[in-house]
């Protein structure tokens, strides 16, 4: 058998190598075929994707550009206004000033059904749910804080469509809704936002919180944040039973969720007493969003009731919402005069040169909310000087009218006893001859609030000594300063 195996091996000495070469050839052929098929597979795959998916994707892009996302408007806001049967009749005129039937959306929330017929000019109303099961242990407060805190939850549970923001306020809160839309439109309503303002009086912020939006000034909660808040709110209310107010309880809950307050300078709690003139005349460079506690301060305009004063301010707001209370400064170097304009409200004329840094500070015509002191406040202030020449001559809004396409002309008159004119001449010189101001201005573009803020410039049009001084407010040039160069 050994010979036979040897014979067989000798007869086919290359059998092993033939077998190995054939296997290698077969594997190589399969590999080349596989590699050659890849481009075909890719081609057909992409052809299939293009024919079935690209058109759909392209349609989505077309829809995006043909139907871009809708900007926030007044229909996206749901207001929740806290009131009671004891306070509504005395305060309803505040809501009626800003509420627009069939345009604004929301409800006034009562503790019980009102007993008088309901006017169509007022917001519709709802009755708050019973809150007797909740804890409340603040000895100097009122259990109504529980009911008011739950308005945001009850508003959410109404299930109204197309709501982006829940805005809370009181029955004596005056909202400037177009400016509110401008403010909320800057933020992504699909994110969690809590927007509002602090108290003006430091003593209030120390007692309650610097991180809280004060409820009377109003605050806004985005829909995504509301969806989380409503789940935990009732438990929070019991957990913070010792908190005085509804706004405190809301902020405590939001702190647990982890959402801080986004502060905006246009929300005004008006935690002051006395004359609000200095505060309003020094409004910050931000859209006016709200005013509160108007019953606790003097009327905004002399010789008018509180409501009539607000109607006059609203007449200016309706003519140019974004410009309302915005300041501009003019200088007359020849006569050494300084003019400060708070559009839609007042003009101040100084018979001397006053720096803008000083003008920016609010005149202390008011006192703190709790202790009736002249300090401290959360903004810069300056005392009303005892030296007559250092005090301004004050002019108040008389009317606003159209002045051509896209422009307004506002008139401000001095409310002063003319019999004192000659006595004042000793201190103010020829400045006492100015009886009124006429201020022309282009209508404010609300899109400017989306850019870096900059105060607009002012120039004096007529330089002659006459009873009417004409001013023009306009956007500043790139390298322009409101402070003129002095010789």
Provide a brief overview of the structure.
This protein has helices spanning 2-11, 15-52, 54-66, 88-98, 144-149, 151-156, 177-184, 202-207, 223-239, 246-257, 277-281, 306-319, 356-359, 421-428, and strands at 77-82, 105-110, 125-127, 165-170, 174-175, 194-196, 219-222, 262-263, 272-274, 290-291, 327-332, 337-342, 346-350, 362-363, 366-368, 381-382, 393-402, 407-414, 436-442, 457-460, 468-474. With 487 residues, it is α/β, with parallel strands linked by helices.
In words, what does this structure look like?
The chain has 487 residues and is α/β, with parallel strands linked by helices. The chain contains 14 helices and 21 strands. The strands form 5 sheets. The protein has an 8-stranded mixed β-sheet with strand order 11-12-13-17-18-19-21-20, covered by helices on one side. A 7-stranded mixed β-sheet has the order 3-2-1-4-7-6-8. α9 crosses α10 (246-257). It is globular and about 70 Å long. It starts with a helix and ends in a 13-residue tail after the last strand. The model is unreliable at 1-19 and 40-65 (pLDDT under 50).
